Amino acid sequence: MDSFNVMKEFYKNEFEIDESISKTAQIVENECRDIFAKIDEIKEYNQLKVIKAMQQNKLSDSHFAGSTGYGYGDTGRDTLDRVYADIFKAEDAMVRLQIVSGTHALALCLYGNLRPGDELLSVTGKPYDTLDELIGIREGGQGSLKEYGITYRQVDLLPSGKVDFNGIKEALNKNTKMVYIQRSRGYSLRPSLMVDDIEEIVNFVKNIKSDIIVFVDNCYGEFVEKREPIEAGADLIAGSLIKNPGGGLAPTGGYVAGRAAYVENAAYRLTSPGIGKEVGASLGNNRLFFQGLFFAPHVVAERLKGAVFTAAFMEKLGFDVSPSARDKRGDIIQTIKFNDPEKLVLFCQGIQKGSPVDSFVLPEPWDMPGYDSKVVMAAGGFIQGASIELSADAPIKEPYIAFMQGGLVYEHVKLGIMTAVQMMNR
């Protein structure tokens, strides 16, 4: 019996996957081999970049020891900061388990570097939903930027999904202190930005107002390309360790990187003026942060292969997907449009069923804090909320789109999609 038939029988006997689904999966994999090879090329480049940064900073097993209390003299934590700075080509970085999410990392940069009377200008349309109350777009956020007298405006993307440079030129004014760029698509169908796109924005706004701070929400984008936004001229980036750079091992945390003065301002917001980066106990997590970072380029590549497989498979079934299998990718997110709430929920329940953790759980839509509609979330991962692990989030609103993230290993993503399609077919 050939290998395909062996696997077909295994999927059928162990996971109740129909033969037709297994055949489609095989066809899709064969069609995507050249795309997978390009992903591997980027992975190798980024893997070597991470190793070199660790070598340059003389990483030792002594750096894996943790600290308690204030965390003074935590050489592992401080070395991790330098490794991140080198990888992202930044003047400085701050990597801390005390940063509880990507939104928190973004908030540190905003509150740390904006003052009353300043204006924040988003040039990629409305940011991710969890920033609404932080900025003051939606009422309810105690201590929003709006309450502190920091104004906000946005320049929506063009209907094509491209950046509106004329709109940016008209919007920039003497009070505009920071330009905000969201690299990932978030909960929208607009394309994610490539680093080349970010570079074009940076050059454009700096030519108009040279002292402006260009801040990039780098969530979901780390190690997807060979370059990162700082290399494209951005002043500041931030992200979450339970997304790409944590490699699936970091149990919590976030990072900020960029110009030293702006990182320092964010650090003062995390702790206190006069203290900044000098404190922050690592509590025995340094090894996980270093090892997760070491694995990150490989894990991101596994996710990208899974996203390509998902796009190609769902396209064959007649669903609209974004990006398509052969589109360039600036983040790890894959969307599938269902135009049907029942199919959407069944798909997410199938992803959950294919998970290694809580596969027996049936996710249902619920009112999740920070969102303006019910959300169904499939996430059978090892770390709560880790979107570098395979997950599918779906706001229950038209046109009923699933936003898939993560996948520590390609085979899990493949199984998750096959299980989800099987669930939809029942």
How are the SSEs ordered, and which strands pair?
Layout: H1 3-15, H2 19-31, H3 33-56, H4 75-87, E1 92-96, H5 102-113, E2 119-122, H6 132-135, E3 151-154, H7 165-171, E4 176-182, H8 195-208, E5 213-217, E6 236-240, E7 254-258, H9 260-270, H10 286-316, E8 320-322, E9 334-337, H11 341-353, E10 375-378, E11 391-395, E12 401-405, H12 410-425
Parallel strand pairs: 2-3, 2-4, 4-5, 5-6
Antiparallel strand pairs: 1-7, 6-7, 8-9, 9-12, 10-11, 11-12
Helix pairs in contact: 1-2, 2-10, 3-4, 3-10, 5-9, 10-12, 11-12
Q: Keyphrases for this structure?
A:
426 residues; alpha/beta; Aspartate Aminotransferase, domain 1; seven-stranded mixed beta sheet; five-stranded antiparallel beta sheet; 13% strand; globular
Describe it for me?
The relative contact order is 0.14. The chain has helices at residues 3-15, 19-31, 33-56, 75-87, 102-113, 132-135, 165-171, 195-208, 260-270, 286-316, 341-353, 410-425; strands at 92-96, 119-122, 151-154, 176-182, 213-217, 236-240, 254-258, 320-322, 334-337, 375-378, 391-395, 401-405. The mean pLDDT is 95. The chain has 2 domains: 3-46 and 294-425, Methioning gamme-lyase, C-terminal domain (Aspartate Aminotransferase, domain 1), CATH 3.90.1150.60; 66-283, Aspartate Aminotransferase, domain 2 (3-Layer(aba) Sandwich), CATH 3.40.640.10. The strands form 2 sheets. Strands 1-7-6-5-4-2-3 form a 7-stranded mixed sheet, sandwiched between helices. Strands 8-9-12-11-10 form a 5-stranded antiparallel sheet, covered by helices on one side. The chain is globular and about 65 Å long. Helix 1 packs across helix 2 and helix 5 crosses helix 9. The chain is α/β, with parallel strands linked by helices and 426 residues long. The protein is 40% helix and 13% strand. It has 12 helices and 12 strands.
